[in-house]
Specification:
heterodimer, A: about 500 residues, alpha/beta, UDP-N-acetylmuramoyl-L-alanine:D-glutamate ligase, Protein-Tyrosine Phosphatase, Chain A, 2 domains, 9-stranded mixed beta sheet, 15 helices, 19 strands, about 20% strand, B: about 240 residues, Rossmann fold, 6-stranded mixed beta sheet, 12 strands, globular
Amino acid sequence: MNAKIPLITNQYHHRGGKIVSNSLRFHTAVLAGKTTSFILKKVLKGEASAMPGKVAMQIDPQILQVVNQRCQKKILVTGTNGKTTTNNLLSHIIKSQGLRVLSNLRGANMPQGLVSSFINDMEDEYDWGVFEVDEGSFQEVVKHVKPDYVVVTNFFRDQLDRYGEIEKAFQDIFDALEPLDTTLILNADDPLVSNFKSLGKKNIFYGVAKNKFSNQEEGVIESRFCPSCATRLEYDYFNYGQLGSYHCNQCGFNNPHREYEITGVEYANPGYHLSFKTINHESQDLDFSYDGIFNTYNCCAALSAALEIDLESEKVIDSIGRFEYYLGRMESFQFPDKLVKVVLVKNPIGLGEVLRSLSLDEKTKSLLMVLNDNPADGTDISWIWDAQVENILQVKNLEKIYCSGRRAEDMALRLKYAGQDPTTLNVDYGMDHALEKVLNEDVEVVYILPTYTAVFQIRELIISRMGGSSKFMSYLRESLKNIKLKGN
Amino acid sequence: MELKIFHMYPDLLNLYGDLGNVTCLRQRCEWRGIKVHIIPFSRDQEVPLEEGDIFFIGGGSDRGQNLVYSHLLGYQRTMEDLIEDEAVFLSICGGYQFLGAKYIDAEGNDVPGLGIFDYETISEEGRLIGNIVTKNTLGLDPETLVGFENHGGRTYHDLEPLGMVVAGHGNNRKDQKEGMVYKNCIGTYLHGPLLPKNPHLADYLILKALKRKYGVEELQLLDDSLELAAHRRVLELYSPLK
């Protein structure tokens, strides 16, 4: 079926015939958005991930419905952590099959972010729309965009606006899902997510079975209580946070059967070698090059969605093995003498899990942590004390830790109270300075863990230092990637 | 020497990094060779409170605080006796509000507190959020306390405050007072968490507990250069007193 929207008419219509918007307004909105995007990207050399959409929506508030109409099928990804990775991986998988995909790959996940992605990548028609959606914007987005599938990853506290509580995020999404005719792809291992089965939709559950990284000890946990009857939940094991194998002795609430399941996890530096069981009980092996059990979950979410929409499993597995993305959230830079890895840390569970994943890497290493307290980072930096920073003690061959950013001392203090030897800790506000020092360390790998507002700055500072051949190689790699994508 | 630190309702009152206060007390004791037992106390995890030397009560979500309150009512007398007997209490935000007579919520309903103190907290329009600096009333050096506050309730009382506001809001944004002190019980709105960046207050609490239990008069000094640097950084960024 062709759902193409005629471009040269006075009005275009909803399926029900309701007037959505008029074409003059729509074209003006798109033009304004594109102009904004051009100015931001070409003139100011900056990011254009939300502003063009914001401008366009001012002119045509209905523009999100056009996005809805032009995508034949839609998948939304929501939850606290892993949205951007899952969204990027899933889009990459679908694109690798030669399908046309519209997606907000840069993490701008409010309505204007979705519209920006459309303005920056405008087509008459897409096979799939794959969008990550902020928990707080979910209700607004589904008023216009009607998803065929919704992937829910997890619920953790974010460092932003935490007094709003995750119970509210949960309830907002629950209420927004209720009237929708959609299939839910749910993390079976998070009791807060699996509880969505009570909506009575078609549910597909995914999760990660007990593996060598599972543990018995409770770490940072959002809720130890049964979402159904508020009794304390019993756990057989934890994979991370409250994700694991749980049951309630009172009402019987427990992990639903996982239709798609990661059954084995082996560390392969970098990344993981995973074993996987499909809904048809077939076993498969795959490689995914991003560290951390949380990324195993992201991989499982995208993989489950891809197989659920009937993509061919061999091709899916192949494309996952080739997945790379470069947003500054997880990015590697090869210097002549060392590898530099940047991983965004933005909330307690993320910080703890990133540190845990470092403990698998035997290479000699130094660390740069950048803690800012700008509004976009969260002005309250106390969240670092909710994180399992103690995981730093398991990191092997660690030479030095540099702490930078506006609240550098707070980060250093957190590490000291986690038990890290204070003589390994160095405080330096100047990010440039601190970066210079850590790059001069005689180590095989440098890990950089910045908060949100520091990520893009750090990325620029790193690239400006990648002199000569490494800079060239980096450009070459990027160009090759683009050719490969177009060739598909 | 050993101290028992009761961490009250760690599974329900666990917002804003307040866990860091327990981490801080533990480390500062252990660095001095003082043994520490951290004892979690919660629903389905009741332990006799009389054994505790230091009690820590943090803040939680509304749901968490309601669950705690109904449970804690059964321990009202015990807690009151402990406070009179000079046991060390650190109660933050929701924990501080609990100790008072009542909380008047946004709809004007009275929610009774434990009533150990006779103050009340009133929910008023707009949350008080941000970095805060006060001058402490305990005679500690340095005289400033730094933290981060995030509360909708305003608390009014005539008790001795923990500090006078230099930057930020404090108990109610009106009378410049922040927190309260009665014997060895401290109530405050300061998160941050409070103790790591205010090592002088952490040591004050540890010393009070050791004095009550063992008659100890002074503590071995620690190298607090990093703690005080973090303290100063907050002053530089957020206080008119630099």
